[in-house]
Structures are given as C-alpha cells and as structure tokens.
Design goal:
This protein has 258 residues and is α+β, with helices and mostly antiparallel strands. The protein contains 9 helices and 4 strands, in the order βααβαβαααβααα. The protein has a 4-stranded antiparallel beta sheet with strand order 1-2-4-3. Helix 1 packs across helix 2 and helix 5 packs antiparallel against helix 6. The two termini are 23 Å apart.
Length: 258
C-alpha cells in the first residue's frame, strides 16, 4: 500500500476558523481573516470541537493518491458517499500479470499462502484465456464491418477485457485518487480506524490520518476512532481495548508531529 497526500486546501485551519468567525462575529468579508493568528485559529478550532459545530470544517478538503489496495477495499471505501473517487478502470486497462493484496492471516500460514498464490495464478490464466477468445471473435466482427486490422485489434481488445475482467478476484490491486472534506474524514476515521474495521481499510485510514494530522494537527487532534476522545461506539461489539487504542493514537500524533 502506498498513500500520499498530494493536495489540500491552503491554510486549512485558518480557513475553517474564518468560516467559524462568520458564524459567531460581525466580521465582514474584508475583515474575515484579520486577527486569525495561530493562537486565535486554535481557539476557534477548539471551540468548534467542544460544541460539536462541524459544518465549518467542511470547507477544507484533502486529496490522496492511493495504490496497492485491493478491490475488496474499494468496495468498502466507496460506501463513504461524502468523498470523490477516481479509480483505475479494469474496463480500459488490461490486467497483464495483475498485482494483488495478500491478507496477513493468509501470508502467515505457508499452506494457505500457497493455495492463495495458486488461485491468483489460475485467475490470471483464465483472464488471459477469456481475453484471447473474446478478442478473436470481436476482431472478426470489426474486420467484417470494414475496420483496418490495427483498428479492429485495438477495439477488439478493449471489448474483450470489458467482459474478461469478471473473473478477476477481490484481491486484485487497484489505485485511485480520493478527495474528502475534513468533516467526512472525521467520520471516515471514526469508523475505519476502529479495531472493528477490516484490517486493510484500517491500515489505509491510519496512514491517511497520519498525513492529515501532520499538516493540520489542531483540526485533527480529536479525530480517530471514537474511543480515543470519548466512549466506544461499538457497544457490546467493542474490542475492549480502548486504553490501548488511545495510547496508539498518542504515538501516531507524536510521530506525525515531528
């Protein structure tokens, strides 16, 4: 997995403070940014956190480039509707020797890993075989329609992989660009940094948290799984390790702040 924060709203904390200032003062457009030094900015952000006023934090957005994640993770993360995603297409990009993600539990057991790798090898062979069969059929159709051989081959391959991709596994690796505002990230971190989240998306969420905390520490000081700043929201499904999680996030914040 490779995660990189590639862009974000300039001066995100000051911008959010300006939005909050609009709500709680008579400041005009011309004076909105006046006096928003580091101390005043932190004061506004702390106030927003304490009173639960979240709408101002929607004005700051963060964009990540992400690769080396599975299609299984993709199915989970796109359920977060308050975000924008651009994902590598299996319809337009042929999966020659596709990369894949191996779950840690399978990696740790030699016989399980062997079976998993064999399944990936078989999937690749099936994908290539289906692509070849479909491509040949489609090529004949395009040639009959008057396309040149080069054009017929290009169009046939595109049409072939459109259907051949159906045999590709959830483990198949993909890449994407994701943009979300700070409020959506708060929700994402609360759900996906939790020990109850599936391991792969939890690793992604933790890395995203590290990177946004490094550029906006006051804004994201209270972000993370619910137990880090309050009680566990999982009820009887709780992992029971709230103190351990709090200590973990203290370490993450300390490392990201260096």
């Amino acid at each position: 997995m490779n995660v990189k924060l590639i862009a974000y709203t300039p001066m995100p904390e000051q911008l959010i403070s300006a939005a909050a200032k609009t709500c709680y003062s008579a400041a005009t457009v011309d004076t909105l940014l006046d006096g928003l030094d580091e101390e005043k900015t932190q004061s506004y952000l702390t106030m927003l956190t304490e009173i639960g006023h979240e709408s101002p934090i929607e004005h700051a957005s963060f964009t990540f480039a992400i690769e080396g994640i599975s299609r299984s993770l993709l199915a989970q993360i796109t359920r977060h509707r308050m975000a924008s995603f651009s994902v590598q297409s299996q319809r337009y990009v042929r999966e020659h020797a596709f990369e894949f993600v191996i779950p840690h539990e399978i990696e740790a057991i030699p016989e399980a890993k062997e079976a998993f790798l064999k399944a990936m090898e078989d999937d690749q062979k099936t994908y290539e075989n289906l692509t070849a069969i479909l491509q040949e059929r489609h090529m004949q159709t395009f040639l009959a329609e008057g396309c040149s051989e080069k054009e017929a081959r290009r169009k046939a391959e595109k049409k072939a992989i459109e259907d051949a991709r159906y045999v590709l596994p959830n483990a198949c690796a993909t890449k994407m660009v994701m943009t979300a505002n700070a409020r959506s990230l708060y929700n994402f971190f609360r759900l996906r940094c939790c020990n109850r989240a599936q391991w792969e998306i939890r690793e992604l969420a933790e890395e995203m948290y590290r990177q946004v905390y490094a550029v906006a520490p006051t804004l994201f000081r209270k972000a993370g799984p619910s137990c880090t700043c309050g009680t566990c929201s999982e009820g009887k499904m709780s992992c029971g390790k709230a103190q351990e999680v709090r200590e973990k996030y203290e370490r993450i914040r300390a490392e990201a702040g260096k």
